Amino acid sequence: MSVLTVRDVPEDQIRVLKTRAAQAGKSLQAYMQELIARETTKPTMADMAARLEREAAAEYTTADVLAAIDEGRGGR
């Protein structure tokens, strides 16, 4: 695992992070690791735009949609 150092973080921001970590029952290190993990697993806007483009480019005909509806109704 790598070590990450962040310099020049304003004291008021450090205080907020320490408070939030304490409220979550975590050390500052554990809290920051959780923030980093959460941030790095979220898709970016570019990722989302690419996904939407791929999905919007799917070619479905009216017949495909009607067949899917009929198939869904048949399962009732």
Secondary-structure map with pairings?
Elements: H1 11-23, H2 28-41, H3 45-56, H4 62-74
Helix pairs in contact: 1-2
- Please give the number of β-strands: 0
Shape: elongated
Mean pLDDT: 92
Structural class: mainly alpha
Poorly predicted ranges (pLDDT <50, ≥5 residues)?
none
Query: Beta-strand level of the residues, as a percent range?
Result: under 5%
End-to-end separation: 52 Å
Total helical segments: 4
Helix content: 55-70%
The value of Rg in angstroms is 23 Å
In N-to-C order, the SSE pattern is HHHH
Task: Please give the largest β-sheet.
Answer: none
Summary tags:
mainly alpha
Could you describe the 3D structure shown?
There is one protein chain. The protein has 76 residues and is an all-alpha fold. Helices cover 68% and strands 0% of the residues. The chain is built from four helices and no strands. The longest helix is centred in the middle third of the chain and has 14 residues, at 28-41. It starts with 10 loop residues before the first helix and ends with a helix. The mean pLDDT is 92.
